[in-house]
Structures are given as C-alpha cells and as structure tokens.
C-alpha cells in the first residue's frame, strides 16, 4: 500500500510533470518557492529529498526530515546549497544532475555574451520605448557594440560547461585561453586549441572572462576587487556558475565607472535578490538563474533525479553521486 512506501519529498514542481519514483510515495510542492517553515514541514518523514539549488539543505533541515532520511538528490549541477559534511556524518547519500545542464548553460552563457557585446537589451529598450521614433535614424557612431571574431575568451573552470562554452567561442572565431587546477588536454587539441594560463595572466589578456567554476571556499570572490581591476577597458564578464564567485559590489562599481565594457549575469550573490547597484546599469544583462532552462535538459534533469532516488531507495549506488 502507498502509505507503507518510503516518502520522496520534492521541494518544487518539476518540468515534464511531477516526478515518478518507483516504489515510493511522492510528496511534491508547487511552483512557488516555499518558505523555510514550509520546507521544514514538507521534508518530515522523507527517505529521499529532491531539492532545488536555492533550498538550504543544512543540519536543521536534515534533523527535521528524521533519522530515516537516506538521500538528497539535487536538481542542479551545483550542490553548494547542501551541507555535505553533515550528510557524510549521517550516512546520507548526496546526488546531482551534472550532464543535463551542460548544453543549455553554455547556450545561455554565449547568449549573454552576444547580448552584452552587441548591446541587445539596450537596443531593444530604445526601439520599443518610442525613443527611436523621437530620435530619428541612428548615426554610424550610435549603438555600436563589440565584435567577437579575433578576440580572446578566458574560460575560468575547464569542466563540461567550460568546454561547451569554448566550442561556441571557437565557432565565432575567438581565441581561447583557460584556467583550471590541472591541464586539460581536451582543451588544447582541435577544435578548441586553447592555451592554459594562470588566472591573473588570463584576466589581463582576455577580452571576455567566462566563469565556470563550482562554488567553494577557494572560488568565493574568485573575481575579487583587485582582480576586476586587472581587466581590460573593453572586457566583458560572463557568469553562469554561482553568483558568489564574483564580488558583485566591485563588479557593479567597475561597470558604473565604465572601467570594463559590460557583464552578462545569470547568477547572483544573494539570489533571488539582485545587487541594487546593478539594477540601473545599461551595460549589464541579467537573467534569473535560468542557464539550464531549455525544455529537453530540464526534463532530462527530472529523469536523472528519478534514477538517483530509485537507486538510493534500493540501496544501490546512484548514477550521479556526489558523496
């Protein structure tokens, strides 16, 4: 009977309909982001929690779930929202959805780059506001953006998404340099033919800096005030990884003072709140953390969560395990 089956608590509605985990009782919240209290109530008695990237899976929430909790499946490639140390202490398996987000996130990263370089959002507002009609035909010096062909992109974090971003850049005729902890031969052979550089060397050389690192103590404010000061005057910063990898206050100041050309941000330090100093700037394009929001990939993430949860409940190794 259903009431005797282990509970899988899903913290938000998922693409492609509700999750369906075999041999489990599903408990799923709706589209709206739950309050902390609602989240604590929702996970009580769960054997597996399927969490979203904005859900804080900490000691308090794990305690609220109860001793029967066996696993946490994050509907994301990042898992900095989960206290993995507490999970290890309790023998709770943590799993995630790494591969499904690669293409969609790289698409979003390059979309942001094009939008910033060609001042797309600024031009859209100019056209739809009626300002174009009032102004008249544009002169040859107006609404001019930057070409990408022949420019250098610095990929910071040479994982799957970083590589996918590098492929897109190469297709646009860009040169690629990259920074990561260890050499990535795949980056250095055709078709990317990238060159590995130290972080600060790359920041000084690059026309575009694209962040693709996980959030750790080491990468928090990786792009700090001092490092932002190293960027070229025509530099563009792209972030589709995690917001706290950039010192947003320092970035906003550089954008406001026109010390760099622009930025494209899909992630923010204090999501869902956007830094107030970014809001009024015309040289930044912002999206609400939707890097993987393409139908195919979100549906695949749902299937990956189902497979992870089913394996955990069966006492087997989940296919996409973190720890």
Q: What labels describe this entry?
A:
7-stranded parallel sheet, Rossmann fold, 2 domains, about 325 residues, about 35% helix, about 15% strand, 5-stranded parallel sheet, alpha/beta
Describe this structure in words.
This protein is of the alpha/beta class. It folds into 2 domains: 113 residues, NAD(P)-binding Rossmann-like Domain (Rossmann fold, 3-Layer(aba) Sandwich), CATH 3.40.50.720; 186 residues, 3-Layer(aba) Sandwich (Rossmann fold). Helices cover 34% and strands 15% of the residues. The chain is built from 13 helices and 12 strands. The strands form 2 sheets. A 7-stranded parallel sheet has the order 8-7-6-9-10-11-12, sandwiched between helices. The chain has a 5-stranded parallel sheet with strand order 2-1-3-4-5, sandwiched between helices. Strand 4, helix 3 and strand 5 form a beta-alpha-beta unit. Helix 4 packs across helix 7. The protein starts with 6 loop residues before the first strand and ends in a 10-residue tail after the last helix. The mean pLDDT is 95.
């Amino acid at each position: 009977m259903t009431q005797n089956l282990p509970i899988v608590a899903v913290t938000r509605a998922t693409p492609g309909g509700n999750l369906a985990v075999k041999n489990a009782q599903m408990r799923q919240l709706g589209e709206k982001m739950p309050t902390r209290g609602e989240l604590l109530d929702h996970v009580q008695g769960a054997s597996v929690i399927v969490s979203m990237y904005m859900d804080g899976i900490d000691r308090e929430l794990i305690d609220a779930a109860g001793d029967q909790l066996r696993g946490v499946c994050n509907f994301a490639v990042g898992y900095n929202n989960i206290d993995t140390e507490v999970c290890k202490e309790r023998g709770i398996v943590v799993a995630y959805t790494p591969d499904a987000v690669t293409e969609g996130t790289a698409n979003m990263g390059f979309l942001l780059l094009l939008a910033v370089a060609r001042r797309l959002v600024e031009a859209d507002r100019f056209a739809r506001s009626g300002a174009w009609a009032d102004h008249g035909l544009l002169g040859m010096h107006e609404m001019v953006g930057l070409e990408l062909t022949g420019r250098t992109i610095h990929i910071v974090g040479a994982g799957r998404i970083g590589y996918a971003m590098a492929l897109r850049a190469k297709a646009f005729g860009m040169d690629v340099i990259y920074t990561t902890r260890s050499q990535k031969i795949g980056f250095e052979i055709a078709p990317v033919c990238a060159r590995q550089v130290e972080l600060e060397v790359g920041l000084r050389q690059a026309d575009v800096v694209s962040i693709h690192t996980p959030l750790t103590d080491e990468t928090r404010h990786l792009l700090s005030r001092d490092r932002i000061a190293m960027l070229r005057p025509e530099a563009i910063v792209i972030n589709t990884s995690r917001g706290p990898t950039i010192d947003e206050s320092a970035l906003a100041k550089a954008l406001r003072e026109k010390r760099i050309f622009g930025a494209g941000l899909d992630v923010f330090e204090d999501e869902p709140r956007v830094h107030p100093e970014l809001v009024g700037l015309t040289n930044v394009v912002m999206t609400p953390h939707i890097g993987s929001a393409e139908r195919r990939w979100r549906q695949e993430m749902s299937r990956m969560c189902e497979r992870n949860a089913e394996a955990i409940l069966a006492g087997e190794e989940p296919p996409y395990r973190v720890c």
